[in-house]
Amino acid sequence: MRIDIITVLPELLKSPFEASILKRAIEAKLVEVHFHNLRDYTSDNYKSIDDTQFGGGAGMVMMIEPIDKCISALKAERDYDEIIYMTPDGETLKQGMANQLSLKENIIILCGHYKGVDQRVRDQFITREISIGDYVLSGGELGAAVLCDAVIRLIPGVLGNETSALTDSFQDNLLAPPIYTKPREYKGWKVPELLFSGNLPKIEKWREEQAYLRTKERRPDLLAED
Ligand code: ADE
């Protein structure tokens, strides 16, 4: 998989890709991540990427020309499955969406700033608009990092144990069950006895029940989804 991220703040984005699972996925060549500084696609001396709104109103708007130049240069090199715009008014990121995107070959992620981008960018280039939640960030970069993390860890081969992503919260619309490790007892707080029984079918059934109960209590909305 190849991910091209278009941003005005590449330095804000880089560190999540330089540690842990994302770093290993890049080193193992399971994913390539490229950062493109939008200011490299400007045509004036000030490297302007934004301007005031037509019709008046507070806040600057990202201009179409540098974005068009950057996206067109990328599209001239290869086909893209999705061109994603990170925005608070997009579709909310869910695990199912991350699963789908992890199967794509090439994606572009455009990070918005200020008030956002000229609507014509969205109309002409964007195939999908994604929000990471109902709150407004200063820009799309942190959202893009969240999206990439959620997607990259699902690429086959990225997680050491292939089954571990399958047992994550949300994979089957359920939250994950409680987990425990050593010591067996700490300050009198005990691990459920059943987990030492060696009865794997019973343990599995207990985990399923716990996942269901936790979901019912904390996120009943997930049980209503198909
Ligand atoms: N840019 C600003 N806020 C955002 C959000 N909630 N999700 C994605 N991109 C954003």
TrEMBL record:
Subcellular compartments: Cytoplasm
Ranges where the tRNA methyltransferase TRMD/TRM10-type domain occurs: 1-224
Keyword Lipid biosynthesis attributed: no
UniProt record, GO biological process: tRNA N1-guanine methylation
Record-linked Pfam families: tRNA_m1G_MT
Enzyme Commission number(s) of this protein: 2.1.1.228
Alphabetic keyword roster: Cytoplasm, Methyltransferase, S-adenosyl-L-methionine, Transferase, tRNA processing
CC annotations in GO: cytosol
GO molecular-function terms, A-Z: tRNA (guanine(37)-N1)-methyltransferase activity
Catalyzed reactions: guanosine(37) in tRNA + S-adenosyl-L-methionine = N(1)-methylguanosine(37) in tRNA + S-adenosyl-L-homocysteine + H(+)
Amino-acid positions noted as binding S-adenosyl-L-methionine in the UniProt annotation, renumbered to this chain: G112, I132, G133, D134, Y135, V136, L137
PANTHER family: TRNA (GUANINE-N(1)-)-METHYLTRANSFERASE
Protein function: Specifically methylates guanosine-37 in various tRNAs.
Self-association and partners: Homodimer.
HAMAP family named in the record: TrmD
Recorded family membership: Belongs to the RNA methyltransferase TrmD family.
Listed name of the protein: tRNA (guanine-N(1)-)-methyltransferase
The organism's taxonomic lineage, starting at the top: Bacteria, Pseudomonadati, Bacteroidota, Flavobacteriia, Flavobacteriales
